């Protein structure tokens, strides 16, 4: 039996033991008042080896557990960050001390009530007074120092990549800020957010290759949209809406690389009585606001390129630029010429 199989077997036995003791290893509710980030901020000034009488309650996943006999340490990770847990003989009640020692493993979700302390190593911690198992983990977490190494496995098991790598988790938080800022910016500028059909009877608004499927109820072929409701938003302008935008998914049945996927989130807006120059000014203002809100800077590096959004935004004629770098005149070239050049 391999090491992972031994761990799984041991944890299954713990689940069985807990149920015999009348303890549900998978309860459906737990109420708590605090999170790790809030506590880290609130008790920044707590002195080394300081101890408070402040009772707190947190819930999260045990990432690392170290049993040193009469004292045990664990790292609890919640949606806001991490904080250390301490279970100490004589300080933690015997029932909870023994329970933590015997039944809690890395990967388990727990709810904890305790006192805020700072240890000898200056680590802000929660001294456990009461602990409750919320979800017993059967499979072990990826190895602490190496984690997920295989790139394909990272994307197939994205939840583990996020769990083990704080920088990946932060990326998803920034993505939410990115789209939230765009939405708020457009609304503040007087644009109306709309939702347009994802399934269309004809793929219009762009020149990409669509995904095709069949609508059983209507017995017709339909396409997943390749543009962000371009034709629909134009119809809304005809109906009298002067400023609209939509944030949503697009689907293009084409190439796949570091910067292109078959489905992705996009934003498209339409603005009556305005020229493309007005649109360019709006986009520049929007990007600067998004950068400030998301990464708190107008300067950043991406894929080896240094970007400074604070510099002058140059204006280029894209047909001239394409011809300069590829030799292709887009107004005269045929599809086969463009495809041959792109390959």
For this structure, the CATH topology of the domain at 3-135 is: OB fold (Dihydrolipoamide Acetyltransferase, E2P)
Q: Portion of residues in helices? A: 25-40%
Average predicted local confidence, pLDDT: 91
Order of helices and strands: HHEEEHEEHHHEEEEHEEHEEHH
The CATH superfamily of the domain at 3-135 appears as: Nucleic acid-binding proteins
Structural class, from secondary structure content? alpha+beta
Beta percentage is 25-35%
Largest sheet: 5 strands, mixed, barrel
What is the CA-based Rg, rounded?
A: 28 Å
Number of strands: 13
Low-confidence stretches: none
Oligomer: single chain
CATH hierarchy class name of the domain at 3-135: Mainly Beta
Number of helical stretches of at least 4 residues? 10
Describe the model.
It is a single chain. The protein has 343 residues and is of the alpha+beta class. Among the domains are: 3-135, OB fold (Dihydrolipoamide Acetyltransferase, E2P) (Beta Barrel); 189-273, BirA Bifunctional Protein, domain 2 (2-Layer Sandwich). The protein is built from ten helices and 13 strands. The strands form four sheets. A five-stranded mixed barrel has the order 1-2-3-5-4. A three-stranded mixed sheet has the order 6-10-11. It has a three-stranded antiparallel sheet with strand order 7-9-8, with no helix packed on it. A hairpin with a 4-residue loop joins strand 2 and strand 3. The longest helix is centred in the middle third of the chain and has 23 residues, at 166-188. It starts with a helix and ends with a helix. The relative contact order is 0.07. The mean pLDDT is 91.
């Amino acid at each position: 039996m391999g090491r992972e199989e031994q761990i799984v077997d041991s944890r299954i036995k713990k689940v069985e033991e807990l149920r015999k003791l009348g303890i549900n290893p998978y309860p459906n509710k737990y109420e708590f008042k605090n999170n790790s980030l809030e506590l880290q901020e609130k008790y920044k000034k707590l002195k080394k080896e300081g101890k408070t009488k402040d009772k707190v309650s947190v819930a999260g996943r045990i990432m690392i557990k170290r049993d040193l006999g009469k004292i045990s340490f664990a790292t609890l990770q919640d949606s806001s960050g991490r904080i250390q847990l301490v279970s100490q003989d004589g300080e933690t009640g015997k029932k909870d001390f023994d329970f933590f020692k015997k039944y809690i493993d890395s990967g388990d979700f727990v709810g904890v009530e305790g006192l805020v302390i700072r240890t000898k190593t200056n680590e802000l911690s929660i001294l456990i007074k009461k602990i409750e198992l919320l979800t017993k983990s059967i499979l072990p977490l990826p190895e602490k120092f190496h984690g997920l190494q295989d790139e394909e496995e990272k994307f197939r098991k994205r939840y583990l990549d996020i769990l083990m790598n704080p920088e990946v988790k932060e990326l998803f938080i920034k993505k939410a800020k990115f789209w939230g800022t765009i939405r708020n910016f457009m609304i503040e500028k007087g644009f109306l957010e709309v939702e347009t059909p994802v399934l269309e009877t004809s793929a219009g608004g762009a020149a990409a290759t669509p995904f095709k499927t069949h609508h059983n109820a209507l017995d017709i072929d339909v396409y997943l949209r390749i543009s962000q409701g371009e034709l629909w938003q134009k119809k809304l302008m005809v109906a009298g809406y002067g400023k609209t935008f939509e944030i949503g998914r697009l689907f293009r049945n084409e190439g796949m690389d570091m910067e292109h996927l078959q489905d992705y989130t996009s934003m498209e807006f339409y603005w009556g009585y305005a020229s493309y120059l007005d649109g360019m000014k709006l986009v520049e203002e929007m990007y600067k606001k998004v950068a400030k809100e998301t990464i708190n800077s107008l300067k950043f590096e991406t894929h080896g390129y240094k970007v400074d959004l604070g510099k002058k935004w140059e204006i280029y004629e894209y047909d001239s630029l394409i011809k300069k770098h590829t030799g292709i005149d887009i107004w005269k070239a045929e599809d086969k010429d463009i495809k041959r050049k792109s390959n």
